[in-house]
From TrEMBL:
It comes from Streptomyces kaniharaensis. It is found in: Cell membrane. Residues 369-489 form the Histidine kinase/HSP90-like ATPase domain. SUPFAM superfamilies: ATPase domain of HSP90 chaperone/DNA topoisomerase II/histidine kinase (SSF55874), HAMP domain-like (SSF158472), Homodimeric domain of signal transducing histidine kinase (SSF47384). It catalyses: ATP + protein L-histidine = ADP + protein N-phospho-L-histidine. It is an enzyme of class 2 (transferase). Residues 260-327 form the Signal transduction histidine kinase dimerisation/phosphoacceptor domain. The keyword Disulfide bond does not apply. It holds the Pfam family HisKA. Its EC number is 2.7.13.3. This is histidine kinase. Keywords: Kinase, Membrane, Phosphoprotein, Transferase, Transmembrane, Transmembrane helix, Two-component regulatory system.
Length: 496
C-alpha cells in the first residue's frame, strides 16, 4: 500500500521552512531598508529646512534692532516664512515675553514646552518631530546669536521657531511601505518555488530509498540504488546498497542451508520407511506371541512395538512436512458430506464414545474439500484434545455464511469446526507457538511421545484449503481449536 504524504511530511516541512526563512529575510531586509530609507529621507528634509532657516536668519539678522518690538517680531516671522518655496512654513518669533507668528492668531500648538526651553539655551539649533491629528510636523527652534569681539557666539534672547509639514516625506515613507509590501508576496512565492525545487532534489533520493526498501520487504533482495554525487544522501544510498548486498547473501545462504536441511529430512525419512516397514511386520508378529512369553519379555516386546509404531508415525509426519515444504502437497477436492466425513474419522479410530459431537443433519452441509486432509485435520485435533486435555471432549460442525471475498457480491459458505476439551488449557506463553514445528510444552501438559508435528501438519492442511485455524482458552476452561474452511460452490453437474 502506498503511503500518501501527510500534512507533517518532509516536503511540507521543507517548503514551510523555506517560506519562513524567506519571510523572515524579506521582513528583516524590508525593515532595515525602511528604517535606513526613512532616516535618510527625514534627515535630508531636516538638514534642508535647517539650512534654509539658518541662511534666511543670517540674511535678516543684520537689519534687526534690539530690543525688537512686536512689529519687528511679526516682520521677522513673515520674512522667514517666505524662505519656503511651497509657502507651507509656519513661523513664530519670540523675544522674552513677546512673540509673533507668520499667520495671524496661530496658536502654534506643535511647540512643546521642552523644545521652547531647549531653544532658549545656548544650543545652536534644536528640532523635534511631532504628530498632531495624524499629521507629522518638524518643529525647528533656532536662537539668534551675534559674534562678539572674542569670536564667541552671544545669545540675543531672540528665538525663531519653524513648523514644517512632513507631508511629502510621509508620502515617500508610505511609498516605501507599499513597495515593501508588494515585494513581500513575490519573495514568498519565489521562496516557495525554490523550496519545492530543493524539496524535489532532496526527496527524490528519499523516495527512491523508500521504494527500494519496499521492494526489499517484498523479497526482491537484488534491489539497488543509483549512487549520485558525494553528499550525505549519496552516502546513505551507498550504505543501503551494501546492506542490501549483505542481506541478499545472508538470505541466500540461509535458503541454501534450509534447502539442505529439508532435503536431508526428506531423504532420511524416505530411507527409514523400508526398514521401518520390516520392523513393523516383525513387531506385529511379536505382539501376537507376547501372550506366551514371560512377563518381562512380553513387556519389552510391547515397548518395542509401541516405539516402532511411534517412529513410523514420526517418519510419516516428516514425509508430509517435506511435501509441504517442497510445494508438492496438492488438494484432491471432492464433493462430500462433511458431517459424514467427521463421523468416519471418529469411528475409524474408535473415538465415537469418547467425543461429544454436535453435527448437522446428514447431507445438510456438503462442500468440496480434500477428504484425506480433512480426516487428518479432525484426527489431529481430537487426538491432541484426548492426549493433553480432559474429558469430555466436544466436537461441533456448522456452516457460516459470510460476505464474499475479493469485493465480489453475495455471500459464500464456510464450514466451522470447533474442538474443545476441559483440561488445564494452554499457557499464555505457549499460544503464540502452538502451531510451530516440534514445539512442546511439557510444563503445562502431561509428557507425551508425540513428534510435535501434529498441529503444524494440521495448520498446513487448513491453509492449503484457504482456511484459518486458531487456538485459544475457553472462558469456562480447557483448550479450544477453531478451524474455518471455505466451501466453493458446487458445479451444476455435481449438484445433479
Amino acid at each position: 500500500m502506498r503511503h500518501r504524504l501527510l500534512p507533517g511530511g518532509l516536503r511540507i516541512r521543507l517548503v514551510a521552512a523555506f517560506a519562513l526563512v524567506a519571510a523572515l529575510a524579506a521582513l528583516s531586509t524590508g525593515a532595515l531598508t525602511f528604517r535606513e530609507a526613512r532616516t535618510g529621507i527625514l534627515q535630508q528634509s531636516q538638514d534642508t529646512v535647517i539650512r534654509l532657516v539658518r541662511n534666511r536668519i543670517d540674511t535678516l539678522a543684520w537689519g534687526l534692532t534690539f530690543p525688537p518690538t512686536q512689529q519687528d517680531l511679526a516682520a521677522l516671522a513673515a520674512n522667514v516664512a517666505e524662505a519656503d518655496p511651497t509657502r507651507q512654513w509656519r513661523v513664530m518669533a519670540t523675544y522674552r515675553g513677546l512673540n509673533a507668528t507668520s499667520a495671524p492668531q496661530d496658536p502654534f500648538t506643535e511647540l512643546t514646552p521642552a523644545l521652547r526651553t531647549a531653544a532658549t539655551t545656548h544650543t545652536p539649533t534644536v528640532f523635534q518631530r511631532v504628530t498632531v491629528a495624524g499629521r507629522s510636523d518638524l518643529v525647528v527652534g533656532m536662537p539668534i546669536t551675534f559674534a562678539s569681539a572674542d569670536h564667541k557666539r552671544a545669545a540675543t534672547g531672540l528665538t525663531v521657531f519653524v513648523v514644517v509639514p512632513q507631508t511629502a516625506e510621509q508620502a515617500y515613507v508610505q511609498a516605501l511601505v507599499s513597495a515593501a509590501e508588494r515585494a513581500t508576496l513575490p519573495a514568498l512565492v519565489l521562496a516557495v518555488l525554490l523550496a519545492l525545487l530543493a524539496a524535489r532534489g532532496v526527496l527524490r533520493p528519499v523516495r527512491d530509498l523508500r521504494q527500494a526498501t519496499r521492494r526489499i520487504a517484498e523479497g526482491r533482495l537484488d534491489t539497488r540504488l543509483a549512487v549520485q554525487g558525494s553528499d550525505e544522501l549519496a552516502d546513505l544510498s551507498h550504505t543501503f546498497n551494501e546492506t542490501a548486498a549483505a542481506l541478499e547473501e545472508s538470505v541466500a545462504e540461509l535458503r541454501r542451508m534450509e534447502t539442505k536441511a529439508r532435503r536431508f529430512a526428506a531423504d532420511v525419512s524416505h530411507e527409514l520407511r523400508t526398514p521401518l516397514a520390516a520392523m513393523s511386520v516383525v513387531t506385529d508378529i511379536l505382539d501376537e506371541d507376547a501372550a506366551g512369553l514371560d512377563p518381562d519379555t512380553a513387556a519389552a516386546v510391547r515397548l518395542i512395538s509401541q516405539e516402532t509404531a511411534n517412529l513410523a508415525r514420526l517418519v510419516e509426519d516428516l514425509m508430509e512436512i517435506s511435501r509441504f515444504d517442497a510445494g508438492a502437497a496438492a488438494l484432491h477436492l471432492d464433493d462430500i458430506d462433511l458431517a459424514e466425513s467427521v463421523q468416519r474419522t471418529l469411528i475409524a479410530r474408535g473415538w465415537q464414545n469418547h467425543v461429544d459431537t454436535r453435527l448437522p443433519e446428514p447431507a445438510a452441509l456438503r462442500g468440496r474439500v480434500d477428504p484425506r486432509r480433512l480426516d487428518v485435520v479432525v484426527a489431529n485435533l481430537i487426538a491432541n484434545a484426548l492426549r493433553h486435555g480432559a474429558p469430555p471432549v466436544r466436537l461441533s460442525l456448522h456452516a457460516d455464511p459470510r460476505p464474499a471475498r475479493d469485493g465480489a457480491h453475495g455471500t459464500e459458505r464456510w464450514a466451522v469446526i470447533e474442538v474443545q476439551d476441559t483440561g488445564p488449557g494452554i499457557p499464555e506463553n505457549v499460544l503464540p507457538h502452538i502451531f510451530d514445528r516440534f514445539y512442546k510444552s511439557d510444563t503445562a501438559r502431561t509428557r507425551t511421545q508425540g513428534s510435535g508435528l501434529g498441529l503444524a501438519i494440521t495448520a498446513e492442511n487448513v491453509h492449503l484449503h484457504g482456511g484459518t485455524i486458531r487456538a485459544a482458552n475457553h472462558p469456562h476452561g480447557g483448550a479450544q481449536f477453531i478451524v474455518e474452511l471455505p466451501l466453493p460452490e458446487l458445479r451444476e453437474e455435481e449438484r445433479s
